Amino acid sequence: MKIRELLEQRRSENFALHEQYLNAQMVKVLKTIGFDRQYVRAEGPYLFDDQGERYLDLLSGFGVFALGRNHPKVVEVLQEVLSAELPNLVQMDVSLLSGLLAERLLAIAPPGLERVFFANSGTETVEAAIKFSRYATGRSKIIYCQGGYHGLTMGSLSATDDQYYRAGFGTLLPDFVAVPFGDLAALEQALSGRDVAAFITEPIQGHGVQIPATDYLPGAAELCRRYGSLFVADEVQTGLGRTGKWWAVEHWGVEPDLLCVAKALSGGFVPVGAVLCRQWIFDKVFNRMDRAVVHGSTFGKNNLAMAAGLATLEVIESENLVERSAQMGRHLLAELQQLEQYECVKEVRGRGMMIALEFAEPQSWSLKLSWKLVEAANKGLFSQMVVVPLLTKHHLLSQVAGQSMNVVKFIPPLTLTDDDCRWILEAVSDVVADLHRGPGAAWEFGKTLAAQAVRMKVGDR
Ligand SMILES: Cc1ncc(COP(=O)(O)O)c(C=O)c1O
Fold first, then answer.
1. Which of 19, 189, 243, 270 is deepest in the core (most CB within 10 A)?
2. In this structure, are 429 and 448 located in the same domain?
3. How far is the CA of 363 from the centre of ligand 1 (A)?
4. 237 Cα nearest atom in ligand 1
5. How many folded domains does the chain comprise?
6. Domain end position, chosen among 302, 318, 334
7. Residue 236 Cβ < 6 Å to ligand 1
């Protein structure tokens, strides 16, 4: 079988196949909002469709493509691994590649982290962090933040504060308690019983791109220390340069007890995750020879994932991507903040290459009426009215930053050029300006979306 030939022969069948064998609702969504493109090639921050049109990807596969797509250095390393006839997943063995990646990760980790556990995805790192925290402390309770997102397997979901993901999936794990993000008094109250294994949070919440006040994370870490709870930083999205530092916790000088990383570590090729943690925690969990395999997964530490991780870290370093993310992010943010002059734009915020535009109900009557009509159908629909023309008119792929919120998020590759930034600024300015011209084509489209949203909801029942 030749993959290229197979893809060529059956090129236009992807939607039909997904309708028949996979998630047909996803096909419906893409068709409804006009996102049903046939992407056939990808390079760096660009996607190309079957018409030869180029798109700039500000979604990065939910934050996977920090290096852009198909980075030649990562491709080269993976090809080398594939042709090297290496022993892989021997299991009753310890591989050199995983040792090397652990060494490299710990060299750039926040101080105090000395051990690594490898997993295959973000959610698996969170599951491991929950289990390690419980075992190491002998306590059961986990405190998590409202508005946070940690993944969709049952343990991570128990720490993910979103009814959209939870409803109907039955009883979640016991002893999980939510506190408001940013509220140190609530956190102290939750921790003060000295029965909490860990407090888990994203340093910057991915949903909505919520950035905490300066004192929050240092205060939270200090409270955890005071009450004997572990501080787990979920950097699955924010890690590896995304926010303009290697780790987002560095913005606040915080030293977590456990740190979860995944997404970008894959180089955009091989699913991988890692939990970096303090030595004593690791030593407690894996405390005897007969507990050497007490937590793990068959595919953890596989050669391709480890090599992808090593290549990714090398590219981030050699191309100076952390610094680039900080600089380009600052520039983009400053330029985009000029849009705050528009009445629907409540705030433009971000750190590095993690930027959000938040929208809110306008004051003027003509816009207010249209806003109410659209938002009545589906809260957060206005942000779709930004995301859709960004793709259909300007070929920018972006996302709404969470359920029922009017926040549009950009998490592009860290490799963007000045031309890419100009593309973004022109496109976003045009779309936002269009929506402020009063009732017209942009809002008509919103009303069509609203009608479809109502119909989709009815169809769902
Ligand atoms: C902060 C955070 N934690 C955990 C996850 C779950 O990662 P995965 O989708 O690889 O399981 C995500 C995914 O978006 C995330 O953003």
1. 243
2. yes
3. 36
4. 16
5. 2
6. 318
7. yes
